[in-house]
Fold this sequence. Notes:
The chain is of the alpha/beta class. Helix content is 43%, strand content 16%. The chain has a single domain (3-264), classed as TIM Barrel.
Amino acid sequence: xxxxxxxxxxxxxxxxxxxxxxxxxxxxxxxxxxxxxxxxxxxxxxxxxxxxxxxxxxxxxxxxxxxxxxxxxxxxxxxxxxxxxxxxxxxxxxxxxxxxxxxxxxxxxxxxxxxxxxxxxxxxxxxxxxxxxxxxxxxxxxxxxxxxxxxxxxxxxxxxxxxxxxxxxxxxxxxxxxxxxxxxxxxxxxxxxxxxxxxxxxxxxxxxxxxxxxxxxxxxxxxxxxxxxxxxxxxxxxxxxxxxxxxxxxxxxxxxxxxxxxxxxxxxxx
Length: 270
Ligand SMILES: [Zn+2]
């Protein structure tokens, strides 16, 4: 009954000097895989370093939509990238490291931090290029779609015609009809650990078929416990809610998510 966190950022400044402790907590809680997500070239280098150093950590290289535009503020707490990201260079870097990575993400579109009017065309163009690259290298794609859920689904539907690659929506904030649409397209959804504090995620678990559910924390953000820093060990909170809503035992919920993880990410247990 291993556990998995398919999306986190434990290379964040808040974990400085505490990474070993956080990983030990995760191992103690039963996690067998913690997928660390990159957001830009600098963060992607760290993701590979962490994955090399800590066997529990699996690497996902990403191009966060705001970073791609060169509009990320400096104070996020993750490595900063100055100016727009050169996608061609990043794709070459991803290709050179394909055997070391489990997925590509986070990528997608975002109209929470930047204006849709001013950035839609460019964000769509970048996202299309990234999806095409993922199809070319046959890697699962992990999607960030804050306030851009419809737009992301539209582009994904246009670009992925025959389920060529698995799609994983991380922290999907879209309404019920959109969750249904994504699920019918065969997309997968990772359930954040703060689900007990967010009725939208409860609906998501109700709507999405069992085989398309995963668990994540998005650490250090979105803690299930007010006033604390989130960490991968907290995926136990996602499991509790999945078990409750899907009427499964805790063990069956854990087994379900773990087998989904292995299938969707083509992960072979060591
Ligand atoms: Zn994230």
